[in-house]
Design goal:
Helix 1 runs parallel beside helix 9. This protein folds into 3 domains: 140 residues, FAD/NAD(P)-binding domain, CATH 3.50.50.60; 124 residues, FAD/NAD(P)-binding domain (3-Layer(bba) Sandwich); 62 residues, no CATH class. It is an alpha/beta fold. It is built from 11 helices and 21 strands. Strands 4-3-2-8-18-17 form a 6-stranded mixed beta sheet. A hairpin with a 5-residue loop joins strand 19 and strand 20. 33% of the residues lie in helices and 26% in strands. Bound molecules: flavin-adenine dinucleotide (FAD).
Length: 405
């Protein structure tokens, strides 16, 4: 394996590890600050695209396209001055200020002046026997495409019913249940399983109640106070009140839990509220990978808000300004519950349900997508498909035979 050693240039080099909500938006914010000496900005990710996870479910029902929710970094970062480097971060040496990457071109060691850790977290598939081999996680574009293929194969089979078990009734489990029940319709037998006594345990009560009602209307079974204790090729074992039962399942989806990236497991981060590491002023961390060290949930909303603070504080450290502690402003929550159906709790207080909430969710998320160019492209495509749908609807209504009175 080739080993290249990239030396630092005169201008400071800021390496941002992870191009998700925390990392990509930190990099974009950094470009907009009034630098005395423009730094070299390097964004590193093992994938070649950003992923707008809140709309990942919509791929299953073809309400969005891959390009809309997973734009390539090369396209997104054109004309921003940020350099993208595709590679797996395999080691970090904060003393020597070195990052080791492994990719198609072999191994590469990058030097940095400042490093931002924004590596997200991973799906823990080792919690129950069989989950790693037989359950499908739902976090990445590849996960969504694998699930789409698996569902398509089942749809093409001669099965009368398609049995899907979803482990975890948090946001991901509930949104998956809604989309899959709309996709599979009367062929779907969808079961949502959680050991908690209620679904969406961290959501505002209004969102939870609406989700319970809509999933109930769609015939989704909800097994609460129930643990998944095993997964096999065509079955899932559940435990309720100490009694275990194995059920046949065509698909088992895993949405439970978060685990820290293995790279960071050995690293003890003493993070200040400014997102700067207390014992290493050149190291910042944010988003899901900073969750164990700060009192905020693992959400895109937190990572996105932190990115503005992280960028500002890096700039402030270079310009002798006071660093600002991160203040979280909870803006509320959207939960999608199928095609054209959602629940919204604006500022966790104002509740809106149904088709209006579904449209609001879509357009609010558009404003959270990275770069104006990408937002305009997606807006154009969505408006185009809205017009096409209306024209198609009108044509099909006009083509309907008149019923005699
Ligand atoms: C299906 C789904 C739906 C969600 N819906 C919502 C929602 O509606 N609202 C909400 O607020 N939150 C939602 N979330 C949570 C949200 O996606 C995360 O909290 C958010 O993405 C965290 O941002 P981050 O930058 O910390 O991590 P991520 O966005 O996960 O980014 C981490 C990046 O690091 C890269 N990476 C990881 N390890 C390495 C490595 N070793 N080398 C190189 N690159 C690496 C990854 O490829 C990734 O691009 C959802 C999550 C999922 C999975």
């Amino acid at each position: 394996m080739g080993l290249s050693f990239t030396t630092t240039s005169v201008m400071p080099r800021i390496c941002i590890l992870g191009g998700g909500f925390g990392g990509l938006f930190t990099a974009l914010h950094l470009t907009k600050l009034p630098w005395r000496h423009q730094p070299e900005l390097l964004l590193v990710d093992r994938r070649d695209h950003f992923l707008f996870t809140p709309l990942l479910y919509e791929l299953l029902t073809q309400e969005v396209s891959i390009g809309q929710i997973a734009p390539a970094f090369d396209t997104l970062l054109a004309r921003t001055g940020i350099r993208f480097h595709c590679g797996e971060v395999t080691a970090l040496d904060p003393q020597a200020k070195l990052v080791t990457l492994t990719g198609g071109a072999g191994q590469e060691v990058l030097t940095y002046d400042d490093v931002v850790l924004a590596l997200g977290n991973e799906a823990p598939l080792d919690l129950v026997p069989g989950a790693r081999d037989y359950a499908l996680p739902f976090r990445t574009l590849d996960d969504a495409l694998r699930l789409h293929r698996a569902v398509s194969d089942l749809e093409a089979s001669d099965r009368e019913k398609i049995r899907v078990c979803i482990a975890g009734a948090g946001g991901s489990g509930v949104e998956l249940a809604g989309k899959l029940s709309d996709r599979l319709r009367e062929r779907g037998r969808i079961r949502l399983i959680d050991r908690n006594p209620q679904i969406l345990p961290h959501s505002p009560a209004a969102n939870r109640r609406h989700a319970e009602r809509i999933l109930g209307d769609r015939g989704v079974w909800i097994d609460l106070k129930t643990s998944v204790v095993g997964v096999a090729a065509d079955a899932i074992t559940l435990e309720f009140q100490g009694i275990q039962e194995a059920l046949a399942a065509d698909l088992v989806l895993w949405t439970v839990g978060n685990s820290r990236p293995s790279l960071l497991q050995a690293l003890s981060l003493d993070l200040a509220p400014t997102l700067q590491c207390r014992h290493d002023p050149n190291l910042f961390a944010l988003g899901d990978c900073a969750v164990p060290f700060l009192p905020y949930p693992a959400t895109a909303q937190v990572a996105f808000q932190q990115s503005g603070y992280c960028a500002y504080n890096i700039w402030a450290a270079y310009h002798g300004q006071r660093l600002l502690p991160f203040t979280y402003l909870p803006l509320g929550e959207f939960v999608s519950l199928g095609v054209g159906e959602a629940s919204a709790a604006l500022f966790n207080v104002i509740g809106i349900n149904g088709a209006i909430a579904a449209q609001m969710r879509r357009w609010v998320y558009l404003l959270r997508m990275p770069t104006l160019d990408h937002q305009l492209r997606v807006a154009g495509e969505w408006l185009g498909s809205l017009v096409n749908d209306q024209v198609a609807d009108r044509i099909s209504r006009e083509a309907e035979p008149m019923t005699p009175k």
